[in-house]
């Protein structure tokens, strides 16, 4: 247990925005600058893929680049790249949009469910593309892309963004219905509009895109702050009897998270500018029921981190995972630390315990890894978390940030 877990931590740009906006630069014939990029391995992978396609990237700082995709000629992204991250599917939408063809290896990413891409394919086909997915590669081709109405059967962040990418340079108007409303969907639309696109309604469930001839770039864009990184540190304060302020965030993007923390008895305050949120532990959190939903509901990417707080809360709590089929594997690891959790399909029941005890645990995905680090900070004794390479995909300098708040974390091997 950290003796005293308190202080202020600066939030980085959002992973799930950066991994979409970087492929989106393929649509631009010209230079653009992007800052507030998180320095994480999923973003580094995007740089590698873009340079393999022929993009010219100038690395201005660990969090800022200038990129020019004018001279890209290739439209293939091999499997050895794409199997490393789910977001590699955005290269299908962006290459198809600019070159009317794409040959992209199937996506990898966190093992939290089946994660099909049928809705992405539905969107591409609605705009006139022919899609063949064989042997781990998705081949897309279109003589031309023409605007159409796309109705999504499920709310999908990735399919919504891929539909926006494919429709931005299409002929005519596209209407996306039942669209995802996450802040990173809005960020992609704002970025493309900054570069000359015509996208309206992002952040609502109906998005209208009027195709334009080309995007010429020339602007600078700053990635939106990461609501999940911010939420992760706020949950850590709740689990570790701490007092933590996250800064360079957007408080409204955290509303479902801070509302749940207040409901559990944490003291939550926001500054007047709405870019700082403070969570202070005043007493043992009370039980809660969580149902993960598409934005603005409680984010599935905060489920594991919140599970640690519920494992230590008073009484019996429930989490219903509404998005993915297998996102409770972290609970087995928390039970090794003394938690009392029963998983039944897409629900988990938490019987709160007074404390967790440190032991070796293993991360199964990005957010599970973050949750186990929080558990290790809150627990008595030493915890060793393996699988840190998952965490490095989505968090910049996570141990440095936690240690600046009073944690005692040492990285014992290079991920
Ligand atoms: C994005 O994944 C995020 N990843 C995930 O974050 C996040 O958990 C998820 O959105 C939900 O918010 C990136 O942005 C790179 P979905 P994505 O399409 O796009 C089903 C993290 O920890 N579905 O919104 O893959 C799907 O199975 C990661 O940062 C289809 O059925 O998620 C799921 O049940 C983990 N067909 C639901 O929709 C499709 O074609 C939502 O998935 C697409 C999705």
Question: What do you see in this structure?
Answer:
By secondary structure, the protein is of the alpha/beta class. The protein folds into two domains: 15-222, Alpha-beta prism (UDP-n-acetylglucosamine1-carboxyvinyl-transferase, Chain); 225-404, Alpha-beta prism (UDP-n-acetylglucosamine1-carboxyvinyl-transferase, Chain). 32% of the residues lie in helices and 23% in strands. The chain has helices at 15-24, 41-53, 79-82, 90-99, 118-126, 157-167, 183-194, 227-239, 255-263, 303-312, 329-336, 366-378, 388-392, 398-404, and strands spanning 6-10, 31-35, 56-61, 64-68, 76-77, 101-105, 130-134, 137-141, 149-151, 173-177, 199-200, 206-210, 220-222, 243-247, 267-270, 276-280, 289-291, 316-320, 340-344, 347-351, 360-362, 384-386. The strands form six sheets. It has a four-stranded mixed beta sheet with strand order 1-14-16-15. The protein has a four-stranded mixed beta sheet with strand order 3-4-2-13, with helices on one face. Helix 8 (227-239) packs parallel to helix 10 (303-312), helix 8 (227-239) packs parallel to helix 12 and helix 10 runs parallel beside helix 12. It is globular. The two termini are 25 Å apart. The structure holds ligand EPZ.
């Amino acid at each position: 247990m950290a003796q005293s877990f308190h202080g202020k931590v600066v939030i980085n740009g959002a992973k799930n925005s950066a991994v979409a906006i970087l492929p989106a630069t393929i649509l631009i014939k010209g230079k653009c600058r992007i800052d507030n990029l998180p320095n994480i391995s999923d973003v580094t992978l995007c740089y590698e893929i873009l340079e393999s396609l022929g993009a010219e990237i100038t690395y201005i700082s660990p969090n800022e680049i200038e990129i020019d995709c004018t001279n890209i000629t290739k439209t293939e992204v091999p499997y050895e790249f794409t199997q490393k991250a789910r977001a590699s599917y955005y290269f299908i939408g962006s290459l198809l949009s600019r070159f009317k063809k794409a040959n992209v290896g199937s996506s990898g990413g966190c093992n939290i469910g089946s994660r099909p891409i049928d809705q992405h394919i539905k969107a591409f086909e609605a705009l006139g593309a022919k899609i063949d997915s064989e042997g781990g590669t998705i081949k897309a081709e279109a003589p031309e892309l023409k605007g159409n109405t796309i109705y999504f059967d499920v709310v999908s962040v990735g399919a919504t963004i891929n539909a926006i990418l494919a429709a931005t340079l299409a002929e005519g108007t596209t209407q996306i219905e039942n669209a995802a409303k996450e802040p990173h969907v809005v960020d992609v639309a704002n970025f493309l509009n900054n570069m000359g696109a015509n996208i309206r309604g992002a952040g609502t469930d109906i998005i209208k895109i009027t195709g334009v001839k080309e995007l010429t770039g020339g602007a600078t864009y700053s990635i939106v702050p990461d609501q999940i990184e911010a939420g992760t540190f706020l949950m850590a304060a709740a689990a570790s009897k701490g007092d933590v302020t996250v800064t360079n965030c957007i408080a409204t993007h955290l509303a479902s998270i801070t509302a749940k923390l207040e409901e559990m008895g944490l003291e939550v305050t926001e500054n007047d500018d709405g870019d700082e949120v403070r969570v202070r532990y005043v007493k043992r959190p009370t039980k809660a029921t969580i149902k993960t939903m598409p934005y603005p509901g409680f984010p599935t990417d905060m489920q594991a981190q919140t599970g640690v707080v519920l494992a230590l809360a008073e009484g019996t709590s429930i989490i219903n995972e509404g998005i993915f089929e297998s996102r409770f594997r972290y609970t087995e690891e928390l039970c090794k630390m003394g938690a009392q959790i029963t998983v039944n399909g897409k629900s988990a029941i938490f019987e709160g315990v007074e404390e967790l005890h440190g032991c070796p645990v293993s991360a199964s995905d990005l957010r599970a890894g973050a949750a186990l680090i929080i558990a290790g900070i809150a627990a008595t004794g030493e915890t060793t978390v393996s699988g840190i390479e998952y965490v490095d995909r989505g968090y910049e300098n996570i141990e440095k940030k936690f240690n600046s708040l009073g944690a005692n974390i040492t990285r014992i091997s290079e991920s």
